[in-house]
Amino acid sequence: MKEKNWDSKMQLRFTFEELEKAPLIVGAIYQSKESSDIKYEPISTLFKGLGIGNMGGYRPKTKAIPPFAILYTTGKEKEWPDIFIPETGVMEYFGDNRSPEKDLLDTPLNSMLTKCFELLEGSEEERKKVPPFLIFKKVGEKYRHVQFLGLAVPGMKDVNPSKCLRLITDIKDNKSYQNYLIYLTVVNVREISWDWLQALKNDPNNHMKLAPKQWLDFVKYGQNGIEPLKAILELDARNSYLQYFAETIVPENLKEGINELINTDDGWSIFEDLNLEKLLQEQTEKVVKLFKRNLTLAKSLKELYEGKCQICGFTFKKENGENYSECHHLIPLGENGSDSLDNIIIVCANCHRMLHYARIEFRNIEENTRVFLINNEESTITYLPKHFKI
Known about the structure:
It is a single chain. With 390 residues, the chain is α+β, with helices and mostly antiparallel strands. The chain has helices at 42-46, 108-120, 124-127, 194-202, 213-221, 232-249, 258-262, 267-274, 276-279, 284-305, 349-357, and strands spanning 13-14, 24-25, 29-30, 58-59, 69-73, 83-85, 90-94, 133-138, 146-154, 165-172, 175-186, 191-192, 316-317, 323-324, 326-329, 344-347, 360-366, 369-374, 377-382. The strands form five sheets. Strands 1, 3, 4, 5, 6, 7, 8, 9, 10 and 11 form a ten-stranded mixed beta sheet that branches. It has a three-stranded antiparallel beta sheet with strand order 17-18-19, with no helix packed on it. The protein has a two-stranded antiparallel sheet with strand order 2-12. The protein is globular and about 65 Å long. Mean pLDDT is 81; it is low at 6-10, 232-237 and 276-283.
């Protein structure tokens, strides 16, 4: 195996032939053969001898708690849009009861998750029984290549476990049925030891001596011991692209103040909602004016809500003591959405990703609230009266 397998995008890659000796590194891509044949999918080869199988989003397919669990997602199922939020390390993952034919706990993953979350609220000894979750996502369209997103634990830091295993109701063929939506957190471990995974399967009474510190902290302290892995490189890449936008795309007569505006928390949020690839084909002047105006509105709304999410109320303090939040346009500006105040809300990073990637159906504003459906589950956006008068 080559010492470094970096591709042109600075991503670490391992070919199918290298998988049996490849390290398990966060962010690395593990390739299938150039075939759609299931026998060439990479996960089963990577974990050869560990009994995980070669099919499904949850492996191994057992209702019992396994030594460790693998969760796989394409990220492209519109009905069940699994979402990874690199800014927070949080993974939103749907259970495996996806039709009315079965009850909630008749499926392997949902049955196992119920047991896991019961252990999560127990003692340190009980948390030792919680399996590590290893998360992979499909990359590319043609073959079965996957990327390793990291080692995850069930739940989120400082959030009650009961809020991290959500029961949702859906309808198919005019029949109602239930499924789970779970929240996991990818912890700050860059490489997973194969010796630890082997011990989890073959020497379960002694695997803790090989476990990474971040896993041990989770076992000892529960939710309070979670240290998320945050995608610093991805955020740096976003900032670099924004800087490129400011220096290269924006005409000289429109550059005044743009650098200062870009270097704010909402730089990327506005950039994303503007759908710039489309708008820049039209008129750059319009884009820059919208960018400036909406950053100003976002700043004013953040002050009004003290950085708290209008959906769930969550915020956290940054190193400088300020509350962190993001702004979202309910209808993106790049899709002819209005830049009026009734189209902008303040949200946490978690809710922001859901609004972009989940199935959303909005209703009208009534008495300072707007009810909406997210994957058929009702939620509410709460508005302060001053929201519409800024």
